[in-house]
Amino acid sequence: MSNKNYDYPVEILSPNDFDEWVEHCGSVFENTGTEYFRRHFVADPHKDYNSVFVIKNEDGKIISTVRVFHRQVYLGGNIYKMGGIGEVSTNTNYRRLGLSYKLLAAASDYMKKNDFDLSMLGTGYFSHYAKHGFIQINRYSKIVVGYDDPGVPPSDIRPLNSENFHDMAMLYNKYCVNLNCCIVRTKEYWQSWCKGEIANPYGLFRDNKLVGYICFDGNWVSEIIADENDYDILLSIIKSDDGKLNVPKFIKTNREVMGEETANGTMICVYKPIEINGVMLRDTASAVEYLNNNGGYIFWRQDGF
Asked: Among 29, 115, 272, 274, which residue's CB has the most CB atoms within a 10 Å radius?
């Protein structure tokens, strides 16, 4: 059990403690399971034990952790170094001792010392992260009619696999460079991380060449990369079970729009000035205001951490 008189120092995760760390994460997030956390570390080509912070109890058992994912994101066509905050978890017997606060402070210091431009995280506990300078940011989507569109011409749409990653990556780089907050995907990232995370990829071919692709989870479009004139063709592959599709708001479609949604479960913290389309954003508040007023952020589900 917890000891309020114990200092609980922050440590760097040792490779020798990796299995215990995975078990800790899985025990706190029971519905997620240990293999998710193992996969997200092993399959991450940018992983670094030095950016995994832990606290142990007096018996040397891991009781709390925070991980910084090393990523890059597109902002205004430029590339910025981003630290993704994940695996934030504390054993139920050791909560309300400020352990997560100490770990997040260590993670913030690490990112500042290692020239990260910003940090991002997903949460429902906003006040907890606001203490470390994080502010909520909006993601905009819309609900469109999910029934078959008779106006879509017959097209060559096929399931994709890892053999298509090279061509998918070329399209991704072409279309995502101007989408704010999209993750920059390296070749190694595609072959390792994406291989285990991308769900239901389908590609649009013309003259046997991939010209666009879509991924989806149920009625939710989790990624769509194509020329805007091909969006409706790719959407036609999804067979909605309730007549609705959830797509990013920026997607141009001839389908009837049934409503719009704003999600704000993502928070960011800016450590260094960011330039977007000639506008210099010098702090977190100005970055959030600019992004919220200019389409929000775009973050594909398979890049989640």
From this structure: 274
Same domain as 80, residue 47: yes
pTM exceeds 0.70: yes
Q: What is the CA radius of gyration of the chain?
A: 21
Decide if pLDDT at 5 tops 70. Answer: no
- Matching residue, tokens 């805007």: 228
Give the range of the structural domain holding residue 86, as residue numbers without chain letter: 10-137+264-303
pLDDT per position as a tens digit, 173-187: 999 999 999 999 999
User: From edge to edge, which strands make up the β-sheet containing 209-217?
Assistant: 10-12, 52-56, 62-75, 78-90, 118-122, 257-270, 135-145, 244-248, 220-225, 209-217, 202-206, 156-159
Together in a domain, 160 and 128: no
CA gap 286, 111 in Å, rounded:
20
**First-to-final CA distance of the chain:** 30
What pLDDT score does 149 carry?
Answer: 73
- Which whole-number Å values give the CA distances from 99 to 77, 86, 149, 187, in the listed order? 38, 15, 53, 37
**What CA–CA distance (Å, rounded) separates 234 from 185?**
22
**Is 55 inside a domain boundary?**
yes
Q: Kindly report the CATH number assigned to the domain that includes residue 96.
A: 3.40.630.30
Q: Are strands 244-248 and 257-270 parallel, antiparallel or unpaired?
A: unpaired
